[in-house]
Amino acid sequence: MEKILIIDDEKGILDLLSMVFRKEGLEVGTAINAERALELIENGDYDLVLSDIKLPKMGGMDVLQAVSSSKPEVPVILMTAYGTIAQAVEAMKIGALDYVVKPFDIDELKIIVRQGLEKRRLQSENVRLKKELRQKYEFHNMVGKSQKIQAVFDLIEKIAATDSTVLITGESGTGKEMAARAIHYLSDRRDQPFISLNCGALPENLLESELFGHVKGAFTGAVVLKKGMFEVAEKGTLFLDEISEMSSVIQVKFLRALQERTIRQLGGIREIPVDVRIISATNKNLKDKIAEKEFREDLYYRLHVISLDIPPLRERNGDIPLLVDYFLRKYSEKMKRRMKRISPEVMNILDRYPWPGNIRELENTMERIVAIEDRETITRDSLPPELLESSTETAAPLSIRDGFNLNAALDDLSRKYLSEALRQTGGNLKESARILGLNYRSLRYLIEKFDLKD
Fold first, then answer.
1. Nearest Cα residue to 65 out of 95, 30, 21, 39
2. Under CATH, domain 150-311 is a member of which superfamily?
């Protein structure tokens, strides 16, 4: 049952309106002054507020400002016997849905209230649908609806239920650490630490100390006992990025830790049992590294119990608009800036760009745009030069001879684009229609025309 709040210092009007709107099937709350009304609004869940402007002490305009500030989704309708154009304009500027002058027509007021409640319903439904859409396509900060990334999401959920070691592969910037975090936070270890360590960022002696810890006096500068990441991540997850950069010496010690489930601190003699899930990642082909004698084959098979490959962004058809919207929202909120619109031309450029740096490059691009762009709409001028250069196509000179048939040439071009769209979407007709800018019926017609049913 929808709920409205009526505010008026005349008891007769409160009683009349309460009776009218209860007969309309609404739950009605009442208040004889603004102070009481604001208490009810703060503690209640009202769908609409109907308030007199002239009230003792605080007035209806104060109620309007308070509601607009704290609960902007709740529509406010103002009533007054002292209506002026100036008051009406001011009320609408602050955010009033409508403005009625006493004595009012009851039927007209019922229509205005119904319109206000319908607006509230539509807003609530819109918020709900957007939330569902984000939940559907956002998976622990991984965003996408393409078949390839949805397959990754499905596999992550299955992996999380196990305690096996995982090897995540993929190009640089595809989101391998995000996938590792998703596995951790979906697992039974979610309440324990998630520790991330980049094996390529540290020299051999420091990496050994970071992994296994060291005892006091183990080397120059080791003035205190230090726990390694294995111990810090106890009962949680240890994520090792760029595992291919691990030296052969560390590989031996790391393999032993995986096999024995114990570690020995640098300079120490005591075996320390550890309970840690290992997730590793690499953008290199470890089998090539094995062939080049740069990576141990036995360690590879220890790490490769379950493999997860993250596809590059250029293979994730349909995901770029979702990611663009996600990063725009993220950085607009972070920088406290108003969400910007993207022109269709810019979205087309972003969608066609190959993104060699993958999601990391796309995220950095959107962060830069939000930071420096002052206009409400993002245009070509907002984009970095490399994106514009990539979108500039050099067309071959046209050749038209006697007997040229324009309709046949256009049909041939249409057939090629339609075939490519169907290939990219795996035969998904709705998605193909979307990326081609066609309605569903037109797409079906062209498929029939060009005999592309198969």
1. 95
2. P-loop containing nucleotide triphosphate hydrolases (3.40.50.300)
Question: Can you give the pLDDT at residue 138?
Answer: 53
**What is residue 139's DSSP assignment?**
E
Q: What is the CATH number of domain 316-391?
A: 1.10.8.60
Which amino acid is residue 195, in one-letter code? I
Tell the CATH superfamily of the 3-133 domain.
Response regulator (3.40.50.2300)
- R_g of the chain computed on alpha carbons: 31
Of 42, 39, 66, 62, nearest in space to 52 by CA: 62
SS3 label, residue 173: coil
The residue assigned the tokens 């529509």 is: 75
What is the side-by-side strand order in the sheet with 98-101?
27-31, 3-7, 48-52, 76-80, 98-101
The type of residue at 209 is S
pTM more than 0.85: no
At 257, give phi and psi (nearest 5°).
-60, -40
From the number of C-beta atoms within 10 Å of its C-beta (0-12, 13-18, 19+), residue 33 rates as: middle
Which residues, listed in sequence order, are joined to residue 28 by a DSSP beta bridge? 4
Output the CATH code of domain 406-449: 1.10.10
| All CATH 3.40.50.2300 domain ranges in the chain, comma separated | 3-133
Which residues have a Cβ under 8 Å from the Cβ of 396 and sit 6 or more positions away? none
Q: At which residue do the structure tokens 């499905």 appear?
A: 154
Higher-confidence residue: 139 or 168? 168
Measured CA to CA, the distance from residue 88 to residue 363 in angstroms comes to: 45
Give the residue with greater pLDDT, 329 vs 94: 329
Beta pairing class for 262-264 and 271-273: antiparallel
- What six digits make up the tokens of 127? 């918020």
